[in-house]
Amino acid sequence: MNIWFATNNSHKKEELNSILNTSLKIPSEEGIGFDPDEIFLSFHENALLKARELKKILDNSSKYCNQENIVIADDSGLCVDALDGRPGVLSARYGDTDGKKLSSTEKNLLLLKELSQFDQCGAPKRTAIFVCAMVLLFDDNKFIITQETVEGEIIKDIEHAKGEGGFGYDPVFLLPALNLTMAEIPTEEKNKISHRGKAGRTIADFLAQRL
C-alpha cells in the first residue's frame, strides 16, 4: 500500500511525515507530473480536487494502477482580517504574475506592505488565522475531510520577522500567547498547535483505524 501526499512541496511533506509518523510519497519525487488548477474559493474544495486529481493519475499509471494507493491532500493558507481574509486560498500564489512567481520572503514583504496602508488610520487590526483543510481519499466517493485553524497576529514589520524553522508565512505569523512566531517554535511543538498538525492528527487517527 502506498500513501501519497498530493503536493510537490517537500517542506509540507517533511512536516506531514512527522505528524503522521509515516513515509509519504509525493509526485515530484516519483517523476509524476502534477500541477492541478486550484479553481475553487474554499480550502476544502481545493484539497478534494487535488486528492482526486492525483488518484486519477495513479489509477491510470502502468506503474501504480495495480497497487493500493491512498491519497492525502491539503489546502492551506493565511487569512488576514484587515485584508478581508486575503490572501486565503491564493496564499501560495499571492502576488504572482504570469511572468514572475514571488519567493516566500517577497510574499511576506508584500503582505506587510499591504497592511501598512492601515497605519495612518491608527493601529491596524493584525489578527489572522492559518487554515488547513485536509482530505484522506480512498476513491472518488469514499473520503473524509477535516479543517483546522490556528489564531495569531501578523507582525508589525519585517524587522520583527524571526525564526529559522517552518516555511512560507511562518516568520511573520505571531502567536501572542507564546510571544513567538510560528518559525521560532520547535518542530515537535509546532506540530501540536499548528493548523496542519491538528488536521494531520485527525487524519492519522482515522487512518490507523482503517489500516
Radius of gyration: 18 Å
> Main sheet, how many strands, which sense, barrel?
6 strands, mixed
Structural class category: alpha+beta
> Could you please say which CATH topology applies here?
Maf protein
The overall pLDDT, averaged over residues, is: 92
How far apart are the first and last residues' alpha carbons, in Å? 10 Å
Based on the structure given, which CATH architecture is correct? Answer: Alpha-Beta Complex
- Biggest sheet: strand arrangement: 1-2-3-4-5-6
Determine the oligomeric state from the structure. single chain
What does this structure look like?
This protein is α+β, with helices and mostly antiparallel strands. It is 30% helix and 22% strand. A 6-stranded mixed sheet has the order 1-2-3-4-5-6, with helices on both faces. Helix 1 (10-20) packs across helix 5 (195-210) and helix 4 (187-193) packs across helix 5. The model has no long low-confidence stretch (mean pLDDT 92).
Q: What distinguishing features does this structure have?
A:
alpha+beta; single chain; 5 helices; Maf protein; six-stranded mixed sheet; 211 residues
Write the SSE topology:
Blueprint: E1 2-5, H1 10-20, H2 43-59, E2 69-80, H3 104-116, E3 127-139, E4 142-154, E5 173-175, E6 180-181, H4 187-193, H5 195-210
Parallel strand pairs: 1-2
Antiparallel strand pairs: 2-3, 3-4, 4-5, 5-6
Helix pairs in contact: 1-5, 4-5
